[in-house]
Design goal:
- It catalyses: Release of N-terminal amino acids, preferentially methionine, from peptides and arylamides.
- Its main location: cytoplasm.
- One of its GO terms (biological process) is proteolysis.
- It comes from Phallusia mammillata.
- With 476 residues, the protein is an alpha+beta fold.
- Among the domains are: 237 residues, Creatinase/methionine aminopeptidase superfamily (Creatine Amidinohydrolase); 67 residues, Arc Repressor Mutant, subunit A, CATH 1.10.10.10.
- The protein contains 13 helices and 18 strands.
- Strands 1, 8, 9, 10, 11, 17 and 18 form a seven-stranded antiparallel beta sheet that branches. Strands 2-4-5 form a three-stranded antiparallel beta sheet. The protein has a three-stranded antiparallel beta sheet with strand order 3-16-12, with no helix packed on it.
- Strand 17 and strand 18 form a beta hairpin.
- Helix 3 packs antiparallel against helix 4, helix 7 runs antiparallel to helix 8 and helix 9 runs antiparallel to helix 10.
- The radius of gyration is 43 Å and the shape is globular.
């Protein structure tokens, strides 16, 4: 049988144990106070974290790791949620900071209608091909011009004028690209010219004498080498076997770009086209300050005559058209006085710094000589009489002269352009102006019938420090 404990001793031990427990256990109000204080500490730490204190990460870690009355799991979840909210807030801020969209790149329409000036908001237009001047006959290099500070400063002083040429050249390049895309057999010559001229007017942003076309569009065919553009009613159609010379000009403030190329569809004419293109490039390469014009004509002739062409079983040496030539260009003056021959034996006049030249060559399978032929379409006011008073009898002639002066000045024009201005029944008045010497007619220039002629042309600027082939493009 178990041993029996006395009642008094048991009671004494129980009371002693109870008193011990009462001393060790904290009152519930103290526990509540501790919880409240811990919560306050958490709030302070959260505020510090939001204000971006240096110890953000440490505070967050301490807050997440501190347990209170067995609530460790709940607090850690709460902390994780708070961090997630902060990251979400940062994401929203990033979304609000939207990047500025880059402006869309403007593209030319087809057919071209947007002025080239709109593609260059700073009004600085692309340079043409810039070349070092050729060495002289004694082999002395002209490289010093490229590095000379004096020549660079002189060049900079003309930058505004060069920029006018470059704007006109950029319009010319875009227009001829358009022409090369649409021109094909079956189109009438009037349609070709009007489409080309419409594009030119749009891209140059035509404004009477401030900007516009420098001369009528030449589209001479086969044995006709130059100065043909169709008059109203001309029904000539371009055919597969034609050799067509497209020669047109643009200008800004009278700074003229004169450039031409030849269009063929039958590959049998390729040697003729290649010969003339090579001759023009040779002339451009050898042109420069102090170069004698006669020397330029000699190298052009040698280049062109090195080519032959087989047509219908007969071989022809390609000849330069000796009474056609390139020329210097002045402001509002397409032919400024100096001529650039394409055969040997010309005058010994030299090219000079600051001058602008059209280097153009004509090759022929015929005699190599042209003469006036066909109905006249090109006209131009005499530059030397531009500011002089001329007595005219016919009132109609006076009125027509006023229209010409206001719209074309001393630039070349054609009858289609007068028609476009709304003038009618003006042929007698135009003849009267030609008879008085105020207006000069420039009829088509043709070699013998049955032969073929080709043409290429570039405008070059003899800048103080380099030569700029301002009309150069990817096509020629």
């Amino acid at each position: 049988m178990p041993a029996v404990v006395e009642k008094d001793d048991v009671h004494k031990e129980a009371e002693a144990e109870l008193i011990k427990n009462i001393v060790e256990v904290k009152p519930s109000n103290e526990i509540q106070n501790e919880v409240t204080q811990d919560a306050k500490k958490k709030k302070k730490k959260k505020k510090k974290k939001k204000t971006g204190t240096p110890d953000n990460e440490e505070v967050a870690a301490e807050t997440c790791e501190t347990p209170v009355n067995g609530k460790e799991t709940q607090d850690s979840e709460k902390c994780a949620n708070e961090q997630g909210d902060q990251e979400a807030g940062t994401g929203e801020a990033k979304k609000k900071r939207k990047r500025k969209k880059k402006p869309a790149i403007k593209q030319q329409t087809d057919p071209p209608t947007i002025p080239v000036s709109e593609f260059f908001p700073n009004k600085i237009f692309p340079h043409g091909q810039e070349c070092e001047y050729p060495a002289d006959k004694d082999g002395r290099s002209a490289a010093w011009r490229t590095t000379s500070a004096e020549k660079k400063a002189s060049d900079t002083s003309y930058e505004e004028m060069w920029n006018d040429f470059r704007q006109a050249a950029e319009a010319h390049r875009q227009v001829r690209k358009h022409v090369q895309e649409f021109i094909k057999p079956g189109l009438t010559m009037i349609e070709i010219c009007e489409r080309l001229e419409q594009a030119s007017r749009s891209l140059i942003n035509e404004n009477k004498l401030d900007a516009g076309l420098a001369f009528p569009t030449g589209c001479s065919l086969n044995n006709c080498a130059a100065h043909y553009t169709p008059n109203s009613g001309d029904k000539t159609v371009l055919t597969y076997d034609d050799v067509c010379k497209i020669d047109f000009g643009t200008h800004i403030n009278g700074r003229i770009i004169d450039s031409a190329f030849t269009v063929t569809f039958n590959p049998r004419y390729d040697p003729l086209v290649e010969a003339v293109k090579d001759a023009t490039n040779t002339g451009v390469k050898n042109a420069g300050i102090d170069v004698r014009l006669c020397d330029l004509g000699e190298v052009i002739q040698e280049t062109m005559e090195s080519y032959e062409i087989d047509l219908d079983g007969k071989t022809y040496q390609i000849r330069p058209v000796r009474n056609l030539c390139g020329h210097s260009i002045g402001q509002y003056r397409i032919h400024a006085g100096k001529t650039v021959p394409i055969v040997r034996g010309g005058n010994q006049t030299r090219m000079e710094e600051g001058e602008v030249f059209a280097i153009e060559t004509f090759g022929s399978t015929g005699r190599g000589v042209v003469r006036d032929d066909m109905e006249c379409s090109h006209y131009m006011k005499d530059f030397d009489l531009a500011n002089q008073h001329v007595n005219l009898r016919l009132p109609r002639a006076k009125r027509l002269l006023h229209v010409i002066t206001e719209n074309f000045g001393t630039l070349a024009f054609c009858r289609r352009w007068i028609d476009r201005l709304g003038e009618t029944k003006y042929l007698m008045a135009l003849k009267s102006l030609c008879d008085a010497g105020v207006i000069e007619p420039h009829p088509p220039l043709c070699d013998i019938k049955g032969c073929y002629t080709a043409q290429f042309e570039h405008t070059i600027i003899l800048r103080p420090n380099c030569k700029e082939v301002v009309s150069r493009g990817d096509d020629y």
